[in-house]
Amino acid sequence: MTTEESKRRAEALIPKFQFERVLNQDEAGRRITLYGQVDLQPALLILARAPFPDAHEYLSVLPANLRSITNLGNNDIYSWFLGSGGPILESDGEDKYADFKIDLICPCTEKHIKKHSRQGVRFVTETPETYRDKVRPYMQVNREDGRLNWVYNIIEGRKEVEDVIYRTPLGRDGDEGFLLLPNLHWDRKTLEALHLLGVTERRDLWSLRDLKKKHLPWLRHMKAKLIDATVETYPQTETDQLKLFCHYQPTYYHFHIHVVHVMLEATSSQSMGRAVGLDSIIEQLEAMAGDEETGMDSISLSYTVGEASDLWTDIFEPLKKLGRAPLPQ
Its family (predicted)? Predict the structure, then answer.
C-alpha cells in the first residue's frame, strides 16, 4: 500500500465514526473525547479546536462570514455574542449549537489594546509606599472619564437586569449592598466553566487594597450569600465546587469578587499573584494586629504586570531603573 493510499484509508475512517457517548470535555470546551464505533469496532474520537490561523486572507473575511450571530448583551462599549462558523441547527429560530463566543469592545481605547496584545510579563512587588505614592494615583486616573460607566449601569439597574442572579435591593443596605451576575466571558452554558461576578454597590472600595478589618463581617456575609445564590441558581453545582477570589491588579477599579467553578481552566487570570483567594484575604485581615482601620494597604503584594501596561512602563520599570524596585517576595 502506498503512502497516499494509507492516508486516504485513514481519512475514510472519520466519517464512519458512530457516536455513542461523551467521555470527557475540558473546562473551556476546546477539547472533547467521544466514544463510539468504526466498522463495529470500539473507537475513541478526540476533537480539539485548532488554533486560529493568523493569515490576513482568513481573518479579514471571518466576521462577515459567520453563519449566525446572537447577541447576549450590551453594556456601554461592551457587547458579547454567540456565533456559528459551522452548520446551523436551529431551535425556536435560533442557532442551537453556536461554536464561537465573541466579545466586542467598540470604541476601544489604547488601554484595551495594550491589555489584549501579546506581551512580555514581569513579576513585581508593590510595597505599601509604592501603592500610596504611585499606584493609588494611577488608580484614580483610571476611574475617571466614564471608564466605570458600564459597572454603574449594572449597579443602578440600567443594563443586564435580566442577567442578575441575586441582589440586595438597590440602596437598602447602604455600604453592604451587592449583586451577582454572569461574567461576560462565560458562555452561560458550560457549567464547568462557570464564572460569575459579585459586584458591590459602594463606590469607595476600588480594590482589595481598600479592605480593612472593619469589613470582615460584611465579607463573610457576602461570601455566604454569593455561594448560596450560585448553588440555588445552578443546582448541579455544590458548594465545594466553587472558589471565590479577587484580582490584583484588577481589570477595573471597583471592588468585585469572582465566583468560578473549580474545574475552570486556570488561565493567567488565576495565576499566582493575580488571583487572591477571598478566604485568604479574610484570614489575613483577621490575623493583622491593629484597630478596625488596619487593612490590606499596609502590606506588600506581589503580582504580574504586562510589559505594555502603564503600571510597568510608568511605575515599576522606572523604579527598577532607579534601583528602588523591591524583589518579589
Answer: Belongs to the HIT family.
Is 116 designated active site?
no
DSSP 142: T
Scanning 38-89, the segments in alpha helix (DSSP H) are 56-59
Query: What's at 286, amino acid-wise?
Result: E
- Please give the domain boundaries of the chain with CATH numbers for all domains: 3-48 (no CATH), 56-105 (no CATH), 128-299 (3.30.428.10)
- Closest Cα partner for 256 from 173, 195, 170? 195
Which helix (H) or strand (E) segment holds residue 277: the answer is strand 275-277
Helices within the chain (DSSP H only): 3-11, 56-59, 110-116, 128-130, 136-141, 149-155, 216-233, 278-287, 310, 317-321
Residue tagged active-site, from 195, 215, 254, 256? 256
Q: Tens digit of pLDDT for each residue in 281-325? A: 999 999 999 999 999 999 999 999 999 899 999 999 999 998 876
Q: Are 177 and 193 in contact (CB under 8 A)?
A: no
- Residue entry with cell 459567520: 66
Minimum mean pLDDT range among 29-33, 57-61, 104-108, 251-255: 29-33
